[in-house]
Specification:
The chain has 432 residues and is an alpha/beta fold. Helix content is 39%, strand content 17%. Strand 12 and strand 13 form a beta hairpin. Helix 3 packs across helix 9 and helix 4 crosses helix 5.
């Protein structure tokens, strides 16, 4: 049915994609599990994947997933599911950190689509289809460990059809409030929907309101809860090294890229999850895996004059983290930023975190129908106290950033789509 990977892409692009639709949804405004459950039943798939770690949260999900996959891949055949992608949908399903061959994508979608088109037809969205493909790959390649990142929230996310998984909760904050709830209690409750009976739950440090919800739901589910800086710890020893410690493990001289307090927190959460899968993972393998892995577009420093800091910050919580990193590691730099944002984000609060840290903003479009128009975002930036200029075409903003001789650091942020677009432009421009 699908002869080339381009055929698969064309099929996926023909589906409803709630990452692009605005306003979110339609008749399926609130994510529902039933379409995925129906597909799993039709296809005869198992909802319990071996050694499965399920990740939800507001910021840090992608980094935790990447660090965890890197560590588990040193000992096990590890399959990961993440979203969204920067350049290609292939980034969403990886085996031991590597993209799958075209042939696997074609075989998987040929098998899945042909069986779902029988009467009654089971219609899936873009996200749901890729997730069903992930489960197909797991069975076909007999994967031993699984790392699954939620797309939106937790309770009603398509990935929450999984059973017997270990739950990881990264930092929880305000985002998608029209869907998940307007209070931290409501948002946390939705994300805690991934906690399964009798499971292990690993959490970042959280605000008091969130911790109260997590503790209550973990107790209701008879789940074993461990929290960063309570049951396990990440302590900085040197500027670029840290130590992980829990009741059974002490691992010294750990180093990661990028070097920041936030990413050390994410790496520690990933290690706690890895030890929940296998408490006997070799320390030397862990050190090597963490040192060699770089989370793509997560505070990623790209070489050049000026160097470019690429980050997928896209909501107030992630912009706050970005601002902390700029103060921590780049406080002596002259910084200009290229930024484009989605219209369902609190742009004013997000940009206020950069006030006093950047000299100005070059505003672009994300290329997504849900994007702020550049001129609209310029006005918001000015209200936030930051000089800004709109660009009709993104490439000219990138060129201006690279050709500016006065700045010592360029920043590209605001959206996965902007980060991906910049990476494509950089490759096309022949910049290493």
């Amino acid at each position: 049915m699908f002869q080339t990977f381009s055929d698969v892409e064309a099929y996926l692009n023909s589906l409803v994609n709630y990452e692009h639709a605005f306003p979110l949804g339609g008749i399926r405004d609130r994510p529902k599990l039933q379409p995925v459950l129906n597909a799993i039943e039709r296809l005869g798939f198992n909802r319990a994947l071996p050694n499965c770690v399920h990740i939800a949260g507001t910021v840090g999900k992608g980094s935790v997933a990447g660090y965890l996959e890197a560590v588990l891949s040193t000992a096990y055949q590890t399959l990961s599911f993440t979203s969204p992608h920067l350049i290609s949908v292939k980034e969403r399903v990886k085996l031991n950190g590597r993209e799958l061959d075209d042939e696997i994508w074609c075989d998987g979608f040929s098998s899945i689509v042909s069986r779902l088109r029988t009467d009654p037809v089971i219609a899936l969205s873009y996200f749901e289809s890729v997730f069903i493909f992930y489960i197909w790959v797991s069975r076909e390649l007999k994967c031993e460990c699984h790392v699954v990142e939620t797309g939106l929230g937790g309770r009603f996310d398509a990935t929450n059809v999984l059973e017997n998984s270990c739950a990881v909760l990264t930092r929880i904050d305000y985002d998608h409030t029209a869907i998940l709830g307007k209070t931290l209690t409501e948002i946390t409750k939705d994300k805690c929907g991934i906690i399964k009976p009798g499971s292990t739950v690993i959490s970042a440090e959280q605000q008091e309101e969130s911790i109260a919800v997590i503790e209550r739901i973990a107790k209701e589910q008879n789940a074993h809860l461990i929290i960063l800086n309570r049951e396990f710890f990440s302590e900085t020893r040197l500027s670029d090294e840290f130590e992980y410690r829990d009741v059974n493990h002490t691992i010294k001289r750990l180093s990661i890229k990028p070097h920041s307090d936030f990413q050390r927190e994410n790496a520690a959460i990933a290690l706690a999850a890895a030890f929940a899968v296998d408490p006997d993972l070799p320390r030397d393998s862990i050190r090597k895996a963490l040192a060699e892995y770089t989370p793509p577009a997560r505070q990623q420093l790209l070489p050049g004059m000026p160097p470019i800091l690429l980050d997928t910050a896209h909501n107030p919580a992630s912009f706050k983290v970005l601002a902390e990193t700029l103060r921590e590691r780049y406080n002596n730099r002259r910084i200009k930023a290229v930024i484009g944002m989605m219209k369902d984000k609190d742009a004013r609060t997000s940009l206020e975190h950069l006030r006093g840290l950047v000299e100005g903003i070059l505003v672009v479009s994300t290329g997504n129908p849900r994007s702020y128009a550049p001129k609209e975002l310029v006005e918001i930036a000015k209200e936030a106290g930051i000089a800004a200029r709109a660009y009709r075409e993104n490439q000219y903003a990138y060129l201006d950033l690279h050709e500016n001789k006065l700045i010592t650091l360029g920043l590209v942020t605001g959206s996965f789509y902007v980060a991906g677009d910049y990476l494509k432009w950089r490759t096309d421009a022949g910049i290493a």
